[in-house]
Inverse folding.
């Protein structure tokens, strides 16, 4: 086995955590929809075969095909990923994928307002959602934080 994947090389004193403020998040939640739907809709869920056509189509749909191409894809176990500069995408079995269009600004200590965040998200929907009459409804904004470190210097 390759030495990179042996457990003896893994730090045992590294930790990572994520938290969010539930009180702040509660003020940025939509009102519940208590009305009955006019038509009964049925969601048909299925796993997606993550093959080359699916990956190429997804990369093209999000307009990152000029930055990433199929020759950049690497497979690690059941995950396929590609990265070029600030843009990266990774696919898991079943069709789930994570897309990063830019690096976060880690030096920023003042976040944008909830209204600005919602406006940015609403403007991104027509650009990045598939044109299949998908309708998204604002649910909530959850302010998350994460951090990590090691006990060794």
């Amino acid at each position: 086995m390759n030495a990179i994947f042996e457990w003896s090389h893994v730090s045992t004193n590294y930790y990572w955590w994520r938290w969010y403020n539930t009180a702040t998040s509660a003020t940025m939640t939509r009102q519940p929809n208590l009305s009955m739907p006019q038509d009964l809709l049925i969601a048909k869920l299925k796993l997606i075969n993550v093959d080359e056509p699916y990956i190429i189509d997804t990369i093209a749909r999000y307009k990152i095909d000029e930055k990433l191409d199929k020759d950049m894809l690497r497979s690690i176990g059941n995950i396929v990923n590609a990265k070029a500069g600030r843009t990266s995408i990774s696919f898991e079995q079943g069709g789930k994928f994570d897309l990063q269009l830019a690096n976060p600004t880690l030096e920023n200590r003042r976040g944008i307002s909830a209204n600005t965040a919602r406006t940015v998200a609403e403007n991104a929907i027509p650009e990045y959602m598939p044109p299949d009459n998908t309708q998204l409804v604002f649910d909530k904004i959850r302010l998350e934080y994460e951090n990590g470190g090691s006990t060794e210097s």
